[in-house]
User: Which sequence fits this backbone?
């Protein structure tokens, strides 16, 4: 029997999970500060695993709401996700993720919004039961419970602004940044729930086992995000 000489295999690169669009775009300068350039543009390529200028670091492209899942199960060592997404994930998987750094990117607010002709304050005062449509069911449930407002929550996956316009709901809980989307649909924000920005999340086992790779990236991200505050 012949024995084959074993070729040394390179270790799995450190894997960072990102979503396409604003999080990817706003993460590029942070990566640069850690000496990492992404080899491909996910808007142009159909590839979901992107190499970088560092052979020991790769990026995977996933849906924004899937980033915590990839990191929790260790399929990615790190990820970047909005607080909105992290609040929803934590409701089902409390404490699953280490969230060391608020990166101060993708900033917006989670708000309650209604049609202009809906008197939200009066409805709340009268103890009315409100129908609220949202993608953020846990954050919405917590918010209305803390105010003692009864709500029927209707789960949607997008285009929340449509719901009050066609009678699906009295109010929505959605993200607001410039306010242009609300304005374009004749809606108004009636209450702020929480400020939103994106955080670095880290797999708990990877933090221990791959500390020497992860820590310098964490430090560079923290320095860069503080510099832009
Ligand atoms: P998908 O399109 O896959 O359903 P998504 O709409 O949540 O996901 P993005 O729009 O890229 O994906 O949002 C990613 C994150 O960016 C959100 O979780 C939120 O934290 C933040 N975000 C969303 N909308 C805005 C906005 N208008 N301004 C600033 N940040 C935003
Ligand atoms: C987000 C969010 C709001 C909008 C708010 O949508 O869901 O609809 O931004 O931003 P504004 O206050 O600046 O208008 P996004 O642009 O991510 O589109 P999407 O529906 O594809 O998620
Ligand atoms: Mg969006």
Assistant:
């Amino acid at each position: 029997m012949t024995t084959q000489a074993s070729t040394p295999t390179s270790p799995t690169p450190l894997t960072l999970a990102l979503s396409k669009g604003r999080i990817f775009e706003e993460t590029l300068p942070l990566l640069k500060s850690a000496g990492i350039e992404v080899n491909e543009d996910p808007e142009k390529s159909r590839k979901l695993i992107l190499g970088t200028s560092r052979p020991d670091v790769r990026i995977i492209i996933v849906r924004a709401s899937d980033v915590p899942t990839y990191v929790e199960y260790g399929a990615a060592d790190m990820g970047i996700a909005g607080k909105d997404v992290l609040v929803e994930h934590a409701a089902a998987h409390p404490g699953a993720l280490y969230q060391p750094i608020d990166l101060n990117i993708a900033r917006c607010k989670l708000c309650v919004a209604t049609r202009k002709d809906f008197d939200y304050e009066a409805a709340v005062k009268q103890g009315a039961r409100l129908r609220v449509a949202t993608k953020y069911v846990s954050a919405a449930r917590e918010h209305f419970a803390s105010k003692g407002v009864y709500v029927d929550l209707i789960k949607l996956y997008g285009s929340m602004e449509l719901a009050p316009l066609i009678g699906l709901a009295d109010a929505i809980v959605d993200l607001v940044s410039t306010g242009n989307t609300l304005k374009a649909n004749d809606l108004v924000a009636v209450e702020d729930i929480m400020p939103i920005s994106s955080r670095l999340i880290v797999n708990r086992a990877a933090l221990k086992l791959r500390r020497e790779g992860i820590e310098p990236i964490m430090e560079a991200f923290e320095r860069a995000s503080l510099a832009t505050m």
